[in-house]
Amino acid sequence: MKKTLLALSISATVSLVGCAQMAENNDDDILERSGNTINVTDRNDLYNDEGVPNGDDTPMNNFGYVRHQKSPIPGDMNQYANMPTLNRERVADLISKLCTQLPNVNDVATLVTDEEVLIAYDTDTKNRFETADQVKKTALSVVPRYYHVYVADDPRMMKEIERFGRLDSNSRNIDQIIDTTIKEMLKYPQGRKLNDGENANGEMINERNDRLDRDTHDGTPKQMGTK
Q1: Is the pTM of this model over 0.70?
Q2: Which residues form the signal peptide (predicted)?
Q3: Taking CA atoms, which of 5, 14, 62, 84 is between 20 and 30 Å from 56?
Q4: Around 151, how many Cα atoms within 13 Å sit in the side-chain half-sphere?
Q5: CA nearest 205: which of 216, 222, 191, 218?
Q6: DSSP string covering the chain, please?
Q7: Count of CB atoms situated within 10 Å of the CB of 113
């Protein structure tokens, strides 16, 4: 009888260890990144990288969902080692690629600064205003909402913005230099204003810091002859 109980005990222990090992190695665990629940103080995020497989999934199809919690301990800040930042070179690359997919747009050069997007492009369109509107809105769909976008359908402007490619936000007199180029680009069609509160370039009309705009002072481009 004792031998039977001992055998059953050993069997149960082995089963529990096996289950624990299987749980530990289970890749389907939604908390695989830390093994903790969302309520544990050192739990910072909750991911669902893979989505729910349905036969037609690709990484581009999945929704993105992330949850972050502030630490319940006063003064204790969650430390994030790898905060995402905007790679301006890649954003410029994406905008140029997308714009070349537009009708009648054949060549696109894009400069992305810390707050502006400057786009010069070559086009054979018969409606410069509509094409300018499409190019501008394509750029706005990529960058953060506080960005302003300026366009020019003149291939000669490509060289003008290309010279800024090796500069950065700390370059000497960069604001004044770019301001001159922006004023030149405003002579070309910019498309429609975005809404009643923003002009065609995404600048808010009569915003609180309107006086800080490099090229406008009331949200409306200065009257210049259109080339």
Answers
A1: no
A2: 1-23
A3: 84
A4: 30
A5: 218
A6: -HHHHHHHHHHHHHHHHHHHHHHHH-TT-TTTTTS--TTSTT--EEE--S----SS--TTTS---EEE---SSTT-PPP-SS-----HHHHHHHHHHHHTTSTTEEEEEEEE-SSEEEEEEEE--S-HHHHHHHHHHHHHTTS-TT-EEEEE--THHHHHHHTTTT--TTSTTHHHHHHHHHHHHTTS-----SBTTB-TTSPBTT-TTGGG-SS-SSSS-------
A7: 19
Residue 103 CA to residue 73 CA, distance in Å, equals 55
**Burial, 142: exposed, middle or buried (Cβ in 10 Å; 0-12, 13-18, 19+)?**
middle
- Which amino acid is residue 211, in one-letter code? R
Strand partners, 67: 46
Which pLDDT tens digit goes with each residue over 126-137? 999 999 999 999
pLDDT over threshold 90, residue 214: no
CA gap 95, 98 in Å, rounded: 5
pLDDT of residue 21: 53
- Whose tokens are 């006063």? That residue is 74
Q: Does domain 88-212 have CATH number 3.30.450?
A: no
Taking the CB of residue 218, how many other CB atoms lie within 10 A of it?
Answer: 14
Q: Structure tokens of 120?
A: 């010069």
Q: Taking the domains of the chain in order of start, what are their residue ranges?
A: 2-68, 88-212
**Lookup: tokens for 22:** 């299987």
Cross-strand partners of 105: 123
The answer to whether the beta carbons of residues 51 and 62 sit under 8 Å apart is: yes
Dig out the tokens for 161 from the structure. Answer: 């913005």
